[in-house]
């Protein structure tokens, strides 16, 4: 597609439930990134994919967080047993080369109640 | 430990005047710097960047200045327009090494341009 697409745009979930967030990167972009922005904070790096592999998962805040990417395209970020502190805007970005000129999606606003 | 700091959470400027947004960094490995602009309910969009081999980069109304010795950069918008009202994020990366793919962001500065 023309841009990075994320779905859903908003998600309200009950504490303890699992959620899946989806990202469709720009076609042909091999690098894909997940960031999150909590209230009043900057963007926090979560995970980076090059193709289908994730060389760096160090930003994932806990083992409740996981992500995968299939076919070098769509990525899913899964949060298990959600907690209130998981409430944030989750942003996906893609780029044709690493580290420069990210294109971000509009994000998924996750609210855990 | 914040490696990229934007110490002003907000800034108000009159239309037509200059807006100056500041950013400081602590990691001496950073050698590439970017500014992103974010409107509500949208993702950040790339605005302008600068490599550490330069001390200035200009693109239309936007100019970024880099002072490596002070580990400081600034974004100048001249003249400011109401459509420039947004949150501006400073970001940095190290072009070599294990973390070269990762951008480290500041917390952002909300710019309001008053008509």
Explain what this protein looks like in three dimensions:
The complex is a heterodimer of chains A (113) and B (115). Chain A is 0% helix and 50% strand. Chain A is built from no helices and eleven strands. Chain A starts with a strand and ends with a strand. By secondary structure, chain B is an all-beta fold. Chain B has no helices and eleven strands. In chain B, β6 and β7 form a beta hairpin. Chain B is globular and about 45 Å long. At the A-B interface, β4, β5 and β10 of A face β4, β5, β9 and β10 of B.
For the secondary structure, the number of strands of chain A is: 11
Report the sheet-strand fraction of chain A.
Answer: over 45%
Give the averaged pLDDT of chain B, no decimals: 93
The geometry of chain B reads as: globular
User: Which spans of chain A of ≥5 residues are poorly predicted at pLDDT below 50?
Assistant: none
Label the structural class of chain A: mainly beta
Principal-axis shape of chain A:
globular
- Rg of chain A is 13 Å
How many beta-strand segments of chain B? Answer: 11
* String of helices and strands of chain B: EEEEEEEEEEE
Derived structural class of chain B: mainly beta
Separation, N- and C-terminal Cα atoms of chain A: 33 Å
Number of helices of chain B: 0
Mean pLDDT of chain A: 91
For the report, how would you describe the main beta sheet of chain B? 6 strands, mixed
* Separation, N- and C-terminal Cα atoms of chain B: 38 Å
The low-confidence runs of chain B, each spanning 5 or more residues with pLDDT under 50, are none
Tally of helical segments of chain A: 0
Which chains share the greatest interface?
A-B, 25 and 28 residues
């Amino acid at each position: 597609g023309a841009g990075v697409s994320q779905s859903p745009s908003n998600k309200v979930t009950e504490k303890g439930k699992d959620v899946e967030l989806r990202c469709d990167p720009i076609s042909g972009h091999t690098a894909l990134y997940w960031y999150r922005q909590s209230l009043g904070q900057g963007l926090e790096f979560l995970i980076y994919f090059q193709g289908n592999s994730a060389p760096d998962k160090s930003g994932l805040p806990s083992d409740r967080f996981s992500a995968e990417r299939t076919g070098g395209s769509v990525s899913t970020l899964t949060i298990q047993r959600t907690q209130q502190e998981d409430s944030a805007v989750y942003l996906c970005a893609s780029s044709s080369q690493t580290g420069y000129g990210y294109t971000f999606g509009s994000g998924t606003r996750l609210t855990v109640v | 430990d914040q490696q990229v700091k934007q110490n002003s959470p907000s800034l108000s400027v009159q239309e037509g005047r200059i807006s100056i947004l500041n950013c400081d960094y602590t990691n001496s490995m950073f050698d590439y710097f970017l500014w992103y602009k974010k409107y509500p309910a949208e993702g950040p969009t790339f605005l302008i960047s600068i490599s550490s081999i330069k001390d200035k980069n200009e693109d239309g109304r936007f100019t970024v200045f880099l002072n490596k010795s002070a580990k400081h950069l600034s974004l100048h918008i001249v003249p400011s327009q109401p459509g420039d009202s947004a949150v501006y994020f400073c970001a940095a990366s190290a072009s070599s090494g294990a973390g070269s793919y990762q951008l480290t962001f500041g917390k952002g500065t909300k710019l309001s341009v008053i008509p």
